[in-house]
Amino acid sequence: MTETDRVPVFDGHNDTLLRLHQSKDTDVEKLFIEGKSGGHIDLPRAKAGGFAGGMFAIFPPPVEKSRRGAVPL
Which among 39, 52, 61, 68 could bridge 8 via Cys, Cβ 3.0 to 4.6 Å? Predict the structure, then answer.
């Protein structure tokens, strides 16, 4: 199958942002870009698989459980 024959993939349920947020690693962006995030999707696999887009959901955890220490508004 050539690049022009590839059917674009749209993922309707993607937990990537939540998994990166929950990661204990300090440089999750680099892991995602280099393909070492260990999740279901990363940039190299998205490009190779024809990923065209998806629904990404993220929500803030309760203040008591936030490990990043965001300041409540």
Answer: 52
At 29, the amino acid letter reads: E
Q: Do 12 and 54 touch, CB atoms closer than 8 A?
A: yes
- What does the pLDDT look like over 10-59, one tens digit per residue? 988 888 887 887 888 888 889 889 988 777 888 999 999 899 998 887 77
The CA distance from 69 to 31, in Å, is: 22
Handedness of CA 22, 26, 31, 37 (dihedral sign): negative
Helix (H, G, I), strand (E, B) or coil at 44: helix
pTM of the predicted model as reported, rounded to 2 decimal places: 0.62
The HSE-up count of residue 23 (CA atoms within 13 Å, CB side) is 19
> How far apart are alpha carbons 19 and 8 in whole angstroms?
24
